[in-house]
């Protein structure tokens, strides 16, 4: 393939594995699922409304049809719980935090946390987000060798971690912030890989190497978070300055009770972990697509520079950044930062015209649903216009980067504001070019990451 050919191919189909012509046999499927789950699916999986993908003892179905996705996540959500597979990986670290809690425990935690993510609360965080983004821009500007490529994926993760940890803890973590981030990366890299035991449905007591490897990181998380929570309790401050304070004080609007200390610690870790890798990766993929499509980049930059100075907020996003918002949505369609959502059926149901027995494991993959042939026209192409306000309406279950229904991402508004603020800082300051366009490739762990990083040259404007 000549360079021009590969450039043209990328424009038609930005980096993505090709669907496999046939369902891979068991052993290669297990290898693929462990190496990169989005590379394990057949052409048929990208077409079907529902398809059996069982590999072990438990029946597993992949659900793609928008109406069926809506049924699982919204209309009949009480008949589905978070899957054992996912809980097995996340619960050891996140305990009864919002992402992993179920039933009454989840309802109470969600009620307590909701006001912390209200539009007003998020708007109040705008300046902090902008200060952190400005510091990153200054660091990039001051680099001795401007031509040396930067790994935007690592850079954005550092930034989004900085933002969420400041929002949660303000200054309390300063000494441990870097080490906590490093342990988080180890933990999610270790347990982020699908392990054979869960694909094959082996019992819970089956020893998992990942779980053993992840133990020191969990001990570290617990140590740091418990220490900070204890120190806050002893301080007895008058005013809440950050999310941690508010989480410790906020009463459940129904019961009037505040969260117990272990639940506060679980939620703090949940916000830290759920709140940075996803947003960091979303930013890296947005920059990737903008660098492939310079005319789109120009339009986004123009739109952002038309704003008044200061940190853009929700009103700007809704009223002025119409094209930018469409680009963000289209980037999250092609590269959904959370590529898999998993549930288990608590009772028998019917999905996409097929009976589903109680106990069936359900996989909803934003990666696949967002590229389903029957749902999207030219699904592999980058076409932000499909998200402009005058575009044809889509069923709700077609586009699900943040999930849907009662368990929809609580941080959606936080993430969108953060993405827009970061873009408003970096796009006017630098011209980005991919260091090795052919090397960019998505790999699914718990989040969808660029394999080996997203290396770009950033030249000052
Ligand atoms: C682009 C960025 C983000 C994406 C794509 C994303 C995606 C998701 C998805 C798909 C879910 C639903 C999972 C399910 O139904 O099983 C979820 C839940 C959640 N997310 Fe996010 N997320 C992002 C940013 C954030 C941020 C910034 C925070 C916090 C600061 C956050 C905190 C959470 C929490 C706590 C839950 C669990 C909610 C519940 O079950 O009640 N996320 N996220």
From TrEMBL:
Heme binds at residue 409. SUPFAM superfamilies: Cytochrome P450. Its cofactor is heme. It holds the Pfam family p450. InterPro entries: Cyt_P450 (IPR001128), Cyt_P450_CS (IPR017972), Cyt_P450_E_grp-I (IPR002401), Cyt_P450_sf (IPR036396), Cytochrome_P450_Monoox (IPR050196). Keywords: Heme, Iron, Metal-binding, Monooxygenase, Oxidoreductase. PROSITE patterns: CYTOCHROME_P450. It comes from the Bacteria. Belongs to the cytochrome P450 family. Gene3D superfamilies: Cytochrome P450 (1.10.630.10). Transmembrane segments: none annotated. This is Cytochrome P450. GO terms for molecular function: heme binding; iron ion binding; monooxygenase activity; oxidoreductase activity, acting on paired donors, with incorporation or reduction of molecular oxygen.
